[in-house]
Amino acid sequence: MQLKINHRLNQLLILMLLSNVAIIGGLAIFNLELIKNNLLWFSIIMFIYNAIFTILFRMLEVNWDKRLMQKMAINGQIAIANIRKAEKYTAMRDSGGNHYNIWKFDVIYWDHDMKRHEGVLFDKLNSSITEVPLGTVYITNDEAKPLNRFILQNVIIGNIPTLQPIVAKYENSKTINIRYLSVYYNKGLVIETFKTSMNNT
């Protein structure tokens, strides 16, 4: 899902660039005198337009994935998953200058009916992460939209009471080998063993 979000954000940036070209180019072609006679006001309006777009873009960039995963978690659209392979996929940088790495995760996950599935998801990790341990995490899961998958932070699972019966069902299962990992957000996801987390505090 992170790749899809990044693609949409890039499309928005292209749209902003094209809108600027269209406004300036259109006025230059059809009414150049209007720009010349009102250059100051035109510059102020264009500055405000771009500033508003930039602020809204930044808000969307920072919150899009968080809002989507929170909404899916609240709706109970989660699954337990065992990471069986993780590798760096590509590097990226946001408009705030923060660097991340997109990682590709090969997972086995179980739906609410305890049916076993295999899948791949991509998520945005802190740029300092060089290795992701194998273990158990919770992911968002909507079978109708298989691309809408994120790895969930432990705090999200713990803070939504309606998820506890689902979690208990997974934990009481004898077919899932559960080895929970510590998952939290710090300029991208950090996924590590609880032992590592405790040693870092």
Describe, in plain words, how this protein is organized in 3D.
It is built from six helices and seven strands; from the N terminus they run αααβββββααββα. With 201 residues, the protein is α+β, with helices and mostly antiparallel strands. α1 runs antiparallel to α3. The radius of gyration is 22 Å and the shape is elongated.
Number of domains: 2
- Taking the alpha carbons of the first and last residues, their distance comes to 31 Å
> What's the oligomerization state?
single chain
Helix proportion range: 40-55%
Q: Which series of helices and strands comes N to C?
A: HHHEEEEEHHEEH
- Spatially, the strands of the biggest sheet line up as 3-2-1-4-5
Query: Which outline best applies?
Result: elongated
**Uncertain spans, ≥5 residues at pLDDT below 50?**
none
Overall pLDDT score: 87
Approximate strand percentage: 25-35%
The number of distinct β-strands equals 7
What is the structural class? alpha+beta
